[in-house]
Structures are given as C-alpha cells and as structure tokens.
Amino acid sequence: MIGTRRSRLALWQTEHVAARLRAQYPDVEITLQTLVTQGDRLLDTPLPALGGKGVFTADLETALRTGQIDLAVHSLKDLPTELSEEFAIGAVLERGSPYDALLSRDGQGLMALPVGATVGTSSPRRVAQVKAARPDLFTSSLRGNVPTRIEKLRRPGGPYDAIVLAVAGLERLGLRNDITETLPPEVMLPAPGQGALAVQCRAGDRAVQEMLERIDHPDSRRATAAERAFLRRLDAGCHLPVAALGVVEGESMVLLGRVCSADGRRVIDVRAAGPVRDAEALGHDLAGQALERGAAELLAAAEGAVAR
Hints:
By secondary structure, the protein is α/β, with parallel strands linked by helices. The protein is 35% helix and 22% strand. It folds into three domains: 1-92 and 197-216, Periplasmic binding protein-like II (D-Maltodextrin-Binding Protein, domain 2, 3-Layer(aba) Sandwich); 100-183, D-Maltodextrin-Binding Protein, domain 2 (3-Layer(aba) Sandwich), CATH 3.40.190.10; 217-308, Porphobilinogen deaminase, C-terminal domain (Double Stranded RNA Binding Domain). The protein contains eleven helices and 13 strands. The strands form three sheets. A five-stranded mixed beta sheet has the order 2-1-3-10-4, sandwiched between helices.
C-alpha cells in the first residue's frame, strides 16, 4: 500500500512510483491510499506560519508508522532533513528538472515585468531571490495546488502579475506550455531536493527496502543528499531562504549553495566540487563556507521575520 496526498500532482507522482514498481515486480499487488495532510487542510495559512518542516509529510509518516501504508511518496523538497530513526528513504527516483519557472499574465519574463508588479509565491526562498533580482517588485502569498495557482494568475482582475512554480510539477501535469520563462540558477537557485521524488518506508522493513533499491537512481540520490546536507547543517527548512543544487558529472559533483536575507538585499553564494562518493560531506563543508560568510545572521533574522 502506497500513501499519497490527494492533489493531482501528488497522485501523478505516486502513480509514477507505482508504475515503476509494477514493472519490476509484476506479481506484487500495489494499491494507493490517499490522505489529507496538515498543509492541505490549512490552505489559507502561509506555509512559513505553519512552520514549514513536515506540514506535507507528518500525516503520511503517521500512517506509515501505524502500518496503514507501507510506502509514502513525497516531493523530496518537502521532506525534513532530519528523519526519525524509524523511517528510511528507500528510493530517490531519477530527478526531473530542478528549476523554477515564471508564469506571467502578459507573457513577460522576470526582468521585463513592469515596476511594481506583484509576483505570487509562498516560498521565502523564491521571495528573497525575486527581490534580489528585482527589488522594485512586490510579492504576495500564493497557496493551493498547481492548477489552482495558475487559475488565480489568469483570473481577470486578480492580484498576481506573475507566479513562480517548479518546472518539474508543471511538466508532470502536462502544463509546460504555461511557462513564460525557466529561471536560470544564477537568478533562482532551486530548493534542496526540488524535482526529485522520495519513497519513504519503515527502517526495519528490509523486504520493502530491497524492492525499492530496484527503482533508486544513484546520481539523483547523491546530488540531493549533498543539497540536503547543506540545508541540514544550516538548520534551515523550507520556511527560510536557502537554496542548493548539486550537479553530478561522472564521478564528480559541483554543488552550489545560496543563503539570502528575507528581503533579498544580502545574498551569500558558495560553490564546491568533489567526488560524488563524498556527497554529504560536500554539502556539510559548503554550509561551513556559508556560515563563515554570515549565513547564520541572515537565517536568524529571517526566522525572526517568520515568527512576527
């Protein structure tokens, strides 16, 4: 039994995992169980106010813990970096695009939006980077599933001139044609784990872990492990403006990291390269570079802004 959220995107992602497992194990019955998470129930509350970490995953973990489900499929960027010892990430599937997309009402890219335009997003990471690139723009909270967010953008007289969404989610829903501009990493570095799907299971369930090994994608696991190690050492979650991207090139990896002030006025960019076998150490060391350059101060101030 695989647990999933009820949104179109979550169902697509879970069906994708189920199809991969069925291809490997045609004699195993694989069924889906939908659940509603805290993040789905409180759609009028900005994500940072909910605490960020675990709002889309805690209810799935409860179902996993109690045996209601055997697997849980998550967008890896939503999964907290500190997992309980009772759980394991059994597989990270081959990653889709890690990048962010701008969708605008009038077909203008980020740098062409008029002064004073409003960009919709509930992500502090996206807010900070939009403001860093265009301090003359406004941002406004935007919640809901992907089609709902696009409908809010297109609504006549609506509050948004543009919105920012993940490219991978749009592609998975067949909505790539809605993208006005794919934002380059020098403008919008993605969230750690963005574009990757994680399959979570019980740590003691060795039979399930062995099944999941057949659909694991090593390069995607290593790249996202480095990104999540960067996030973990900074003790930051999706409610703080932290970004990272690992790019695997053969046996080597390049890891980019970014920490911003909430208003985008200060940006700390760091870069490291090393063997893929040292992915987590690379992320840990890169976070050390960011801390040496004042990242802790920026994150403490951003945390205070969220608390207010």
